[in-house]
Amino acid sequence: MSSPRNILRLSQRSAQQLRAAPVRSTIQRRLNSTDAKLPSWVVDNAFNRERANVKHHAASTSSLWKKLSIFAVTPCLILGAANAYYLWEEHWEHWAHMAPLEERTEYPYQNIRVKNFPWGDGDKTIFWNSEVNYHNKDKAT
């Protein structure tokens, strides 16, 4: 059975083949002059060789992360969204079996109003939802 290291090497080789010379050379031929000599500032030294190695490594690493993003993150997001949807539906199914809002007990710590809100009738918050929230001034103690 192949080890993870061998699989990684094979994926790196296939990524290199995708960036093959025929595709690159077609584009480069159009952008380069007919002169094939290197610029005067290109020198073969340790720094430039290391920069080339870093560039090569970055290309293969970015390919790996792109594949991980597509084939690992996307399915996880879809599964998470499906789970949230099912929990949401289960929550509202539970609410359907509860007593109507008007019949529920309103405790003194709920809907405390020290002063009226500056909008509407002054009794409802900005995030008031009539399907979930209920406040009867006469019931509150």
TrEMBL record:
Listed GO MF terms: enzyme regulator activity; oxidoreductase activity
Top-level taxon of origin: Eukaryota
Keyword Chloroplast among record annotations: no
UniProt KW keywords: Membrane, Mitochondrion, Mitochondrion inner membrane, Oxidoreductase, Transit peptide, Transmembrane, Transmembrane helix
Gene Ontology CC, one term: mitochondrial inner membrane
GO BP of this protein: mitochondrial electron transport, cytochrome c to oxygen
InterPro entries assigned to the protein according to its UniProt record, in alphabetical order: Cyt_c_oxidase_su6a, Cyt_c_oxidase_su6a_CS, Cyt_c_oxidase_su6a_sf
Annotated pathway: Energy metabolism; oxidative phosphorylation
Signal peptide: none
One Pfam family cited in the UniProt record for this chain: COX6A
Bilayer topology term: Single-pass membrane protein
Location of the protein in the cell: Mitochondrion inner membrane
Family that this chain belongs to: Belongs to the cytochrome c oxidase subunit 6A family.
Protein name: Cytochrome c oxidase subunit
